[in-house]
């Protein structure tokens, strides 16, 4: 019995030792990226081990992008953060020095491995005839959109609508008035894009959901393709979802090598195809061309060129007391 007990202890200690050597990465992400990372994570794990890496556990946390960034600042130990706009990653530098100021220069394309467009999801048959941004201001139209204060999805909607006015000859005052009217058409402002999808699809609230084009495909997979239509407005701010290693966390945990490899692999051909299969626009032009049938041409507004650097955009429009607070009155 003693020998059996000793052998059991040895086996347990060996198992524990093996387990302790397996690194765990936590990816803190925004809520409409669940499906992409469900596909990407096992592909990366297979690649990592084929390259000689030790078994790697990848954990995910999803939510409204700004809420997620706040959680990391407050202590959620993210090895990597994968957001839908630079503002939420900049916050990790501005509040806690968790990353360097030049984090975006560490990977190609300003650390954004793919892009996306803003689209309208409307009820089957498009009964309200919603084809472009001005249609959303029609009397009686209910617009479902997440809160720009907590969601990058909501901020891209705001910037797309603002950019539409400028593109069509309006000035800043006209754009401010237009955006204010648009958000007053919203019966509720959810904290994130996936919550807004639930409001529109499951709770059947609203006439139009404004979201990213990749979320439109996820809606089709979950709810079926017969109950809604996708409308591409004439103008969309180009969404460039960036990624970053959280330096203070990986240096404390000893996971920098794994975290850097995890993000770098997003630019691989395999990952770019996974992105395209999840209706995210690949950066690789050849792979984008392979999937041209699912990505209509869009009149993209480059955000920084149109509105200025992200820190200034955040300060002007979305910080407390900014333009959004000035134009939005809760219904």
From TrEMBL:
InterPro entries named among the record's database cross-references: Thiosulph/SO4-bd
Extent of the signal sequence: 1-22
Keyword entries, A-Z: Periplasm, Signal, Transport
Subcellular location: Periplasm
Pfam family, one: SBP_bac_11
Protein family (similarity comment): Belongs to the prokaryotic sulfate-binding protein family.
Name of protein: Sulfate ABC transporter substrate-binding protein
Taxonomic source organism: Geopseudomonas aromaticivorans
